[in-house]
Design brief:
This protein is α+β, with helices and mostly antiparallel strands. The chain is built from 13 helices and 15 strands.
């Protein structure tokens, strides 16, 4: 008899499922069949669901579960993934009876609105979701419960990308090693196993890294606030956690103003100091001047979005956290220059970026 507590991580822990006595004539009313979905109707796990797929022996379900079955025109996996969506949980919360033990009955469940695309589209949606999750399954030593942690999902996606597990490796791609050798750029050994046509290098050898210019508030107000023309001045506060830059903050720097550093269009800006260190990041869509707590990453031959995703990967973030010092509550630029970056051929960089851009919306809702 399957109970709520037997369902863990979208699987039934059959070793913990107890046997039970049941009248033979009642078995058909409680027997689990493939493509049934079990739904927890009470307690702290109300709303949790499980798709019945492969059952080696006859099993029934306990009283705190609701068994649902659907029209043959609905894809059971599509329904299961719907039951993990925001729309599903929003409707569930609105219909849940607020008591000491929240509960939801079959009547409430039956009233839920569900988008129903054509059968072929349902299968395409299921395939796309499972394709996204298959990317994550390729990552070594994955021991986290990914289903409830969007940031973890995205981070693992980025790590898969920079380790060559997200893209095709084509013999027709240009030789990145030859490109670097012709420019006297040294490569280094990477601890991670990479595709044969990739190489690795120190960031300082393949990127221009530079921090910006600090302005005290009085000078900013007297000389640059309200100035028309020139370049926008971007501080840490102007880079949102949503990775969007506010260019219209009213502060602009005259062209060729002494002492100011320019981040070219398509540069990556990463906050490397203060409370937002390692967390605020964005790509510029125009030339800007920028503050001293931001670091510019710009390369002539590495796709800026590849750099952008690399700087969000768990492997880089772990390295970043390990180098944070108390003096500046951040990471010094020389430490960043010594970071090793995996470099695929230029053509594959674009395929990786395109693939991430395609998959990310699935994790962001």
């Amino acid at each position: 008899m399957v109970r709520i507590t037997d369902i863990q991580g979208n699987k039934v822990i059959w070793d913990s499922v107890p046997f039970c006595d049941i009248e033979e004539e009642n078995i058909p009313n409680f027997l689990l069949k493939p493509n049934n979905i079990l739904f927890a109707r009470t307690g702290g796990t109300v709303g949790k669901s499980y798709l019945v797929e492969n059952i080696d022996e006859n099993a029934v379900f306990a009283g705190y579960l609701i068994r649902t079955s659907f029209s043959e025109h609905l894809n059971a996996k599509y329904i299961k993934y719907f039951m993990q969506s925001r729309l599903y949980w929003k409707q569930l919360r609105n219909g849940t009876i607020a008591t000491a033990q929240p509960n939801c009955n079959a009547k409430t469940l039956s009233k839920m609105m569900i988008p129903i695309p054509p059968a072929e589209e349902q299968q395409r949606i299921v395939d796309r979701i499972e394709q996204a999750f298959s990317v994550l399954e390729n990552i070594d030593e994955l021991q986290l419960d990914l289903s409830n942690n969007i940031n973890t999902l995205k981070g693992l996606l980025f790590d898969a990308a920079i380790r060559g597990k997200l893209s095709e490796h084509l013999n027709t791609d240009s030789d990145i090693r030859t490109y670097l050798i012709e420019r006297n750029i040294s490569t280094v050994t990477n601890e991670d196993a990479l595709p044969d046509n990739w190489c690795s290098a120190l960031l300082k050898n393949v990127c221009n890294l530079c921090t910006g210019t600090s302005i005290n508030e009085k000078v900013k107000k007297d000389n640059y606030l309200g100035y028309e023309g020139g370049l926008p001045y971007i501080g840490t506060k102007d880079v949102g956690f949503d990775k969007v830059i506010d260019y219209d903050n009213g502060v602009r720097i005259p062209f060729n103003e002494p002492g100011f550093v320019v981040a070219e269009r398509s540069s990556v800006l990463l906050c490397i100091e203060g409370g937002s260190a390692g967390r605020k990041i964005a790509i510029t869509n125009q030339d800007v001047c920028y503050g001293n707590k931001l670091c510019k990453f710009h390369s002539d031959f590495i796709n800026p979005r590849y750099i952008y995703y690399f700087l969000q990967s768990p492997s880089f973030k772990k390295n970043f956290r390990n180098e944070i010092t108390g003096l500046i509550d951040g990471v010094g630029i020389n430490k960043l220059r010594a970071v090793v970056i995996p470099i695929p051929p230029v053509e594959e960089q674009q395929r990786i970026v395109d693939r991430i851009d395609e998959l990310l919306p699935m994790f962001e809702g």
